[in-house]
Amino acid sequence: MKKSNYFIYTLIIGILLYLINYNFLKWMFVAFPQTLELTLGNGSWWLSSTWYVKVLYVGLVAPIFEELIFHRTILEWFKKKNLLNIGLIVSSILFGFWHMVSGWGILKAFNMMFIGLVFGLVYNKYELKGSLICHLANNWMSFYFIFGF
Hints:
Elements: H1 3-31, H2 35-40, H3 51-80, H4 84-101, H5 106-141, H6 143-147
Helix pairs in contact: 1-5, 3-4, 3-5, 4-5
């Protein structure tokens, strides 16, 4: 596969993942308003930060940190032991839990488990560069939500 193709594929996956997730949450909040608090919780610390801290953290620091921890370290450990499926499950659960511990609600944790699973599948196919591009694209799309572009 040409190098440019994997970049485009993982970029598109990240964008589509965000669009699916965003529209699902939007539907859920309208259909079931009580889920809003269970999803957002207290919100993450960076929500009350300046715009440049949001851009730096959401657009760069968090995706790099999360990909290194949840996929390059945890998922890769399971892969080396030929336990890919277990690794996908464990890393996805921990990815979701990490977001809950960061201040989001329990429903956000389940939501992020699904997203973590997709990132893990992309990591398995395209390695760290691919999952990082996908994660960055997903997070960059969230600027629409954060800043209301």
